[in-house]
Each structure stands twice: as C-alpha cells, then as structure tokens.
Amino acid sequence: MRGVGTSPGRRCNAEIEYPTIEINFILSRSDVEILLAGFLTGAVGVELRERLDISELPAECCKHVGVAEASGRPWTAWSTERGPMAAWGEYHPEPSRRLYALLLWLEWWTLPHIHHAGWWCVDPRRPRDWTKING
Fold first, then answer.
1. Is 105 or 11 the better-scoring residue by pLDDT?
2. Is residue 16 a part of any domain in this protein?
3. Residue 124 within any structural domain of the chain
4. What is the rounded distance in angstroms from the CA atom of residue 116 to the CA atom of residue 1?
5. How far apart are CA 33 and CA 10, in angstroms?
6. Number of domains in the chain
C-alpha cells in the first residue's frame, strides 16, 4: 500500500543547505529616507509622484517635519494622488538585530491634517512589506 504523496523507488534523503542572508543593520540617513518612501508606497498605499521640499508642504505638516528636521531625524515628502504627504522616523538598530528586521518609530502626515505615529518593522529584502508593531 502506498501513502499519499509517495512514489515507489524514490526517497528524499537530501540535505539542503540554505545560505544565510545577511541584513545590514548599519543604515545611513539616505537608507532611512529610502525606507520611508517604501513605507509610504507599501504600507500607506500611495503613488509617489514628485519629491517635495519642506517649503512646499502645508503649514500644519511643515511644523511636524520641521521638528523632525531640527532633531536630526530623516524625513521625506512627496506629492501623491491624495495630496502632499510626509514621513519621518527614527531607526533603532539594537532591537532590529534582535528581531532580524528593521525597526523604526515612524510618523507621517496626510491630508486632511492628520498626523499618524507608531512602531513598524520591515525586512529590507522586501522594503514595501511593512508590519505594524503594537507596543
């Protein structure tokens, strides 16, 4: 009698080795800015059209981005099909190493004058696939 999914005369005894995929946990400011753009497209679901300067943002958004910029946090701003949008964040390398994913405290601003914030993580091999972390 044969079991389901088996074929006579064939056995799989192969030892398969999977190469370790290394994640670089040392990120530059521009690396984080790229992650922020990936967050806007992947998690928020907008199409990024044209990069915006802080002076091109609505006053309410400009206040938030100005605070982020003054504290040295990376930020990015874009025109989207929903209007201007900005995101800024702080990368946390030590917890990222423990999670084996990139952990960031992210904040973003959307019309009509809504400020969002929270912990998010992403596998850098899939920069548009973000996971919300509770805590």
1. 105
2. no
3. yes
4. 61
5. 51
6. 1
